[in-house]
Design goal:
It is a single chain. The protein is an alpha+beta fold. The protein has one domain: 3-Layer(aba) Sandwich (GIY-YIG endonuclease), CATH 3.40.1440. The protein contains 3 helices and 3 strands. The chain has helices spanning about 25-30, 55-70, 70-80, and strands at about 1-10, 15-20, 45-55. Strands 2-1-3 form a 3-stranded antiparallel beta sheet, sandwiched between helices. The longest helix has 14 residues, at about 55-70.
Length: about 90
């Protein structure tokens, strides 16, 4: 199981796209504790999007696709979509 997620920081009004094989709860906690330099200044982060994939390859493919869009509008459509597992 591999998960792709989108986090949101109210402080920075910014989204962060990531993926994990250890579970999104663990990753969210680590982001909020400052383990990741790129998300340290935005804590606390809120989970806004979650999608689970069978394989790491599928998950990484989806993460790269989302990141390549470079569009806040696209991210917000993902968050509002029916595929969002939240």
């Amino acid at each position: 199981m591999y998960q792709v997620y989108i986090l949101y920081s109210r402080i920075n009004d910014r989204y962060y796209i990531g993926s994990t094989g250890v579970g999104v709860e663990v990753r969210l906690q680590r982001h909020n504790e400052g383990w990741t330099r790129s998300t340290r200044s935005g804590a606390p982060w809120e989970l806004r999007y979650l999608k689970t994939y069978e394989t790491k390859t599928e998950g990484l493919r989806r993460e790269r696709f989302i990141k390549k869009q470079k569009s806040r509008d696209f991210l917000e459509r993902c968050i509002d979509s029916e595929e969002n597992e939240l």
